[in-house]
Amino acid sequence: MKVSVSVSLFLMCLVSQVKGIDPSNQNELQWFRNGVQVNLAEENRRSRSSLCVQPVTKEDNGAVFICQLKADASVNSSIEFDVQYPPDLNDTKEVFVEETSDVVLSCDVRANPPVTVAWKKDGEVLDLTSGSYITTNNGINARLSITKTKRDVHQGTYTCEVNSSVYGIMGRTFTVMVQDKVLRFPVGPTIAGVVVVLCTIVFALISRRNKIIKCIKPN
After folding, report:
1. Which of 37, 40, 62, 73 is 20–30 Å from 163 (CA)?
2. At residue 214, does pLDDT exceed 70?
């Protein structure tokens, strides 16, 4: 059953008398979602039973709902959800990266039906054979990796453009700004060097303590 995300659905189940089953409980119904029983009010179990799915979400895609007779599970009816939904896109992000560093641009492309993905730079289809670009797409995330960025090559506006047979074209835009590389002071080695110097001075002072005391002691 095809259904769009965010709508509300009411499932109805009816049963008539079944031969060979005790009339006292032959009309009691049960609902299951992917094999897990759904709790129902007492008055919603006899002869006819309804189930409300509100709202339908992405997680309901592929879910199987079964209504069955409690006294005979072979008497049942089932329905499987085919939930259609678009990817979560149509936004803009600013990305700052230092020159010669790596950066990854990522789009959530999870959708039903699946979408096709194309990467563009400054409005043109990106030439993946140049510029140290690598693309991956596992059906959930589409990524564009840029290694050793250069301002004159990689700075610009990138678009992750997806095309859905149901929802049309949409995408995410990245404004990539390549900044000058910051020379970082090597804090670790510097601290270690200072500690060594201080220890050397302290040991020297201790070894010459008596002479120093004599020098500063008043006559």
Report:
1. 62
2. no
